[in-house]
Amino acid sequence: MLAWVIREGGNHAIAGIWHEGTDLKSEAGPVQKVERGRRQYSLFAGLAANNGASAVHVSENGGPSFGDKYARNLAVTPELIPTAPVGTSNEDLDKYWSLMGMVFDNQKNTVTAYLDGKATDMWVDNLPTHPFFKWPYNGWMQAEWRREPGVQVGEDPDFPVSQFYQPPEGKPISTTLLSSKGDERMELQEFEFTRVRVTLRGGQVVSRELVALRSNPFWFPHDLYTPPTAAEGGPFTIGRVIHMSRGVGFTGYIGGVAVFNRALSKAQMEALAAIAPRPLVRK
Q1: Higher local confidence (pLDDT), 232 or 279
Q2: DSSP 242
Q3: CB contact set of 152 (below 8 Å; sequence gap of 6+)
Q4: Which of 116, 185, 218, 254 could form a disulfide bond with 180, CB atoms 3.0-4.6 angstroms apart?
Q5: What own/partner pairs with CB < 8 Å and gap ≥ 24 does 102-108 have?
Q6: Could you tell me the pLDDT band of residue 283, with boundaries at 50, 70 and 90?
């Protein structure tokens, strides 16, 4: 999916099928009709994942993920969408067009965020305190703790297996020695989507902790949520999604939205971004 935008402010929804549901606790007050979430996919202007960036949210179940009440499977660009200052003339506004994009590749199990035809690699650390990525971190740690005998500190015995976050971690791409003392050593092992701190004693692994995860592309080993019937699905919306908040969200211009029935290549995304000139210098 692609969206041509001029951003003036805000970090919320651009376009997609993203019915948040009205069954979430909110300060908005009581609702007339309580409905569960019907999330499928949507572009956002970053939110707290990277405020003002190009971000894509996806869902395999229409509802929450990783122990949170919201859906937390997402990819995000490190670059921010250029923002037109308040009072920008109509002539100068044309310098601020950006092309936001997302690619869901069901064969590679990835979802990728694009900005102006580029899908820059991005990693996130400080996971336990990150407002968004602490949730897949929780899904990874819960899966790790579940493998150990007994109940570990921090483990939730009722955490659903379907919400474990387990990217492929076979042979490490790289291994860095962090410390060594006697028969104990600590390594940082990097895999395609994760960086894991591993403690070994006598050559045996005694603990593993997720210290960073790749957020672009993001590992997503699911189909997108498909409602049982069309009537039970959410609508495709532009400029806003159905949610409890009454905030403005994204402000600016949306010049066009395109949805493809296949995963586009990097070359195709670059070609689409080159359709219109980019007079604004990107930083």
Answers
A1: 232
A2: B
A3: 145
A4: 185
A5: 102/1, 102/41, 102/43, 102/54, 102/56, 102/75, 103/263, 103/264, 103/269, 104/41, 104/56, 104/58, 104/220, 104/224, 104/263, 105/263, 106/223, 106/263, 107/263, 108/217
A6: very low
pLDDT digit string (tens) for 35-93? 778 999 999 999 999 999 999 999 999 999 999 989 999 999 999 999 999 889 988 99
Q: Does this model's pTM top 0.70?
A: yes
Helices (H), the chain: 90-93, 134-146, 266-273
| H helices, E strands: number in the chain | 3, 15
Tell me the fold of 1-121+217-283: Jelly Rolls (2.60.120)
The structural domains of the chain, with segments of one domain joined by +, span: 1-121+217-283, 123-214
Q: What is the pLDDT of residue 280?
A: 55
